[in-house]
Specification:
Elements: E1 3-6, E2 9-12, H1 15-30, H2 32-50, H3 63-73, H4 75-78, H5 82-89
Antiparallel strand pairs: 1-2
Helix pairs in contact: 2-5
Length: 105
C-alpha cells in the first residue's frame, strides 16, 4: 500500500488512490522504450552537430566520416528494441558511451 501526503499529513492511500498510483506507474514503465529512444536521439543529434562542419562545401568529407554520419542517421531504423536501446546507452566507469556506433573511428 502506498502512502499519500495531503496538507502535510501522511496516510495510507485509499483503494481509488492506489489504483491511480498503480496506473501511473504502469504507464511510466510501459513508456520506458520511448524515453530511452528520446535519449538516444538527443545524443545522436549532438554527435551530428559536432560533425556538421564536415558537410560544408569547402571541406572534403572522408568516406569514414560519411559512413559514421549515415550510421547515426540510421539508428532509429537499425535499432528498434529496448534491449538494443540499453546497449546504445551503456556507459563505462567514466560515463563515456561504450557502443561502437558512437565512435568516429
Amino acid at each position: 500500500m502506498s502512502k499519500v501526503t495531503i496538507n502535510g499529513i501522511i496516510r495510507d492511500a485509499t483503494a481509488e488512490e492506489q489504483a491511480i498510483i498503480d496506473a501511473r506507474e504502469t504507464a511510466w514503465n510501459n513508456n520506458s522504450a520511448n524515453r530511452k529512444l528520446n535519449k538516444i536521439k538527443k545524443i545522436r543529434l549532438q554527435k551530428l552537430l559536432e560533425t556538421d562542419f564536415y558537410s560544408l562545401s569547402d571541406v572534403t568529407m572522408s568516406d569514414a566520416m560519411s559512413t559514421y554520419r549515415q550510421a547515426l542517421r540510421d539508428i532509429p531504423q537499425d535499432y528498434t528494441t529496448e534491449n538494443e536501446y540499453d546497449l546504445l546507452l551503456a556507459r563505462d566507469e567514466q560515463g563515456n558511451l561504450t557502443h561502437s556506433i558512437w565512435s568516429k573511428s
